[in-house]
Amino acid sequence: MNPLPAPRKVPVVPRPRHGELSGSYLWRVAQANRIGFRPFLCLLGTVPSAVASKRPDLAVMVLTLNDTAFTRLLAYTGLDAANLIKAIPSLAPRSQTPGEPPTIRFSSLKSQVADCPGCRLRRGGAYADTRGLGHKAACLRHGYWLYGQTQRLGLAELPEAAAAQRRLERIAARCGPAAVMRTFELATWYLEHAWRIDYHPHWYPLLLERWQGRVHTAGATAAGTTWQMPSWATHPERVALTAVFTSPYWAAQAVPRADRRHRLFYEHLAAELGISDGRPLRTIRSFDPLPPDIHAQARWGRVLSDPDWNAPPPIAAIPRQVVNYDITEAYAMSLPWYFPAAG
Ligand SMILES: [Zn+2]
What we know:
With 343 residues, the protein is mainly α. The chain contains 13 helices and five strands.
């Protein structure tokens, strides 16, 4: 292999954009200096064959440099290492084994959310590292839905979805984007899978009708079932559940107790989802499998808002006694499988 030429500073050094993806920045440096992308990367170190010269997918391309390749990048750009990594975290060099030549590694970004095309234009074409943007399910400024599938949306016609997104961002500001998205995924699972119509909680058809109504309003094709439902149609209810689940107050209320005050949690849930029909909630069982999950986790001392919710139980830990009280004893007794709770 020919030794690499001594690096010299390139004439044009584009400004690294805050939160930019590594592949996007290296592409912009090459473009600004009218060098082919692959030839430019070859100046930094060994390039994997998966990195094509033409039209790489900049939205997902992560290029990780080892220490010597990163040193070469600094020499070519004249940028400060700490500032560069601060702006573009995925450019942080991966330490290398002794004697390893300058090397670039390639990987693809996996993220539920896409970069907003409107925001990208404002950033001068730089692609964002969307891993830290999980809670940006929509760009309200440019009217793009970004979660799952990017779609231009008339958010003016879907004020509930826009309001829900603002609410999600407020929750993320309070408890952090990673925590909020963990709960958001959990909320989605209950809403769209665990409470699906085939398990027929009595209120589920109400939600389905509401979601279909939103799909109609947006002028999209109506989806028959939950798993064909676009994610923006169910966003308000997902966020409503996320708000309840991330609240330490409501998470603590959800734990079964002899005085049945946990009823308030399920009443609050019904109110947040807009499914209460005015009648008192007869049983928490209409929210299965959530109550048994809350019960099981409470035995390990965990509530819904805890970061280790659903993680495997700690080794050698002894579960607590938590009795699973339903709301009404009379109701529970009417069930054929009823056994009086011990203790
Ligand atoms: Zn935008």
